[in-house]
Design a protein that fits this description.
The chain is an alpha+beta fold. Helix content is about 15%, strand content about 45%. It has two helices and six strands. A six-stranded antiparallel beta sheet has the order 1-6-5-2-3-4. A hairpin with a 4-residue loop joins strand 3 and strand 4. The longest helix is centred in the last third of the chain and has 12 residues. The two termini are about 15 Å apart.
Length: about 120
C-alpha cells in the first residue's frame, strides 16, 4: 500500500473502558505525533480491525490511549499486509473540528514496508 493519508473512524465513540476519545484527542493528540496501529483479529465487529493508539508522555508515567480505528475499507487490505509481515507506521497529520461544538477528527499518514 505504500504511503497514504486517511481519517480515523470511531473517534466520537467512548472506549470500552469508558475513556472519552474526544477528550483525549482534544488534550493529547498533536500533529507529528506517532500513532501505533494494532491489529485486533478478535474484534467482535470486524476481524480485520486495526486500532489506532497514542502514548501520552506524562511527568511520572506514560499513558496509552485508544483514539480510533482505521476504516474497514482500508483495514480489509492493510490487515492482510500486516499479517504477511509488513510493518505499518503512522503519524498524526492534523486534528480537525472542535469548533462550534463539532467533534474532533484525526487525519493520519500511514506507511507500510516489509520488516527488516
Amino acid at each position: 500500500m505504500g504511503t497514504f493519508f486517511t481519517k480515523l473512524v470511531g473517534v466520537t465513540h467512548d472506549c470500552p473502558n469508558g475513556t472519552n476519545r474526544q477528550r483525549v484527542i482534544r488534550k493529547y493528540v498533536k500533529a507529528g505525533q506517532r500513532v501505533f496501529l494494532i491489529r485486533e483479529p478478535e474484534n467482535q465487529f470486524d476481524p480485520e480491525a486495526i486500532a489506532a493508539w497514542i502514548v501520552h508522555k506524562g511527568f511520572f508515567k506514560n499513558t496509552k490511549y485508544h483514539i480510533g480505528y482505521i476504516s474497514s475499507s482500508i483495514s480489509c487490505d492493510l490487515s492482510g499486509e500486516i499479517d504477511d509481515g509488513k510493518r505499518a507506521t503512522a503519524q498524526v497529520k492534523n486534528v480537525t473540528g472542535g469548533i462550534g461544538g463539532q467533534p474532533f477528527g484525526v487525519n493520519i499518514e500511514v506507511s507500510t514496508a516489509f520488516k527488516k
